[in-house]
Amino acid sequence: MKEPASIRGEYERLGAERFYRESGAGYRNPHEAGIVAVIDEAMRRWRPDLSDVLDLAAGSGEITMMLRNRKAAKVSGVDPFTFEAYENRTGQMAERFSFEQIADGAMAGRKYSLIVCSFAMHLCEKSRLPALAVQLSLISSAMLILTPHKRPTIRSEWGWMLTGELVVQRIRARMYNSMNVDGTRQ
């Protein structure tokens, strides 16, 4: 597959959803080195519970691979577009739920110690973001969002309290604690 000039340019040309549908099987995040650096700093600073992690919008599995290397007990991936790239790289199946399906309750009743969403939640439709955030706040006690800019903004009325923020190599990491889960495994 020919590498696009820039993912942002492809988003503008095709739209994010079409870009990932067409290139999902061979997708690799071009910012992976920076993601490693920000994950390492986030792990050092916040020491999240890595007993059962959800890699949300998992891409080609870069977060899953990094967390496995950092002794995460269990990491599960979900991505409706890049599941083939995820499976090829990690050797495990990825569920295929979209942000919209999760916002509608597709993952209700599950429990994770941490959700990590890297370079994706800012692509969620603004109108769906509150429902997505609320649903995620019901299934995990903590969430780490990595983004190349300031979006998305997760509001406290959606069930999350911002507990920390850092920037490494122009990648922003925000740690949130759920106001809807007490942090104990259920």
Number of helices: 7
Shape: globular
Backbone structural class = alpha/beta
Instruction: Detail the poorly predicted runs.
Output: 1-5
User: Main β-sheet, in a few words?
Assistant: 7 strands, mixed
Strand order across the largest sheet = 3-2-1-4-5-7-6
* Beta content: 15-25%
- How confident overall, as mean pLDDT? 85
Report the span from N to C terminus.
43 Å
Q: Helix fraction?
A: 25-40%
**Element order: H for helix, E for strand:** HHHEHEHEHEHEEE
Number of E strands: 7
Radius of gyration: 15 Å
Give the helices and strands, then pairings.
Elements (H helix, E strand, L loop, with lengths): L6 H8 L1 H8 L8 H15 L6 E4 L5 H8 L5 E4 L4 H8 L3 E2 L3 H5 L10 E5 L10 H9 L4 E6 L12 E9 L2 E8 L8
Parallel strand pairs: 1-2, 1-4, 2-3, 4-5
Antiparallel strand pairs: 5-7, 6-7
Describe this protein's structure.
The protein has helices at about 5-15, 15-25, 30-45, 60-70, 85-90, 100-105, 130-135, and strands spanning about 55, 75-80, 95, 115-120, 140-145, 160-170, 170-180. The protein has about 190 residues and is α/β, with parallel strands linked by helices. It has a 7-stranded mixed sheet. α4 links the parallel β1 and β2 (about 75-80). The N and C termini lie far apart (about 45 Å). The relative contact order is 0.16. Mean pLDDT is about 85; it is low at about 1-5.
